[in-house]
Amino acid sequence: MEKVKVNSQRINISFTVNGEQQQLQVEATKRLVDILREDLSLTGAKISCEIGRCGACSVEVDGELVNSCLMRAYQLNGKSVYTVESLSENGLHDIQKAFLEEGGFQCGYCTPGMIMAVKTLLEKNKKPTDEEILDALSGNICRCTGYAGIIRSVKKVIQAI
Question: What's the superkingdom here (predicted)?
């Protein structure tokens, strides 16, 4: 099925992704998740619900967790975006290791968004309470794990800090 294009006005945008400056000309209403996947070949953010309810496409923008399916190109100028790919530039990040060791994933589809939610949480609060952990993960849905492995993973990372 072909996507219907509502607005084909192209704009120039300049922003950073994983610390690298990007300058692109794209449709003003193109979604960040599509820019990442199609224009920059960063496929960590997954496309799932497409309406901001599941968190599979979560990335960090200017230090805040956002659903990249809801952010548009015209909102990106001057922003700093970090994706799950940024975490493994020097081998697996501690959060990724904990998810592997504690069974924090099964099919793995939600995992990049979950990992970005944990990253954003721990950047703001190195010792979150159980309630703060649940709140930070509340925008990310997993249909496979039942969340026990995910919570164990987060707690393991917190203990290591």
Answer: Bacteria
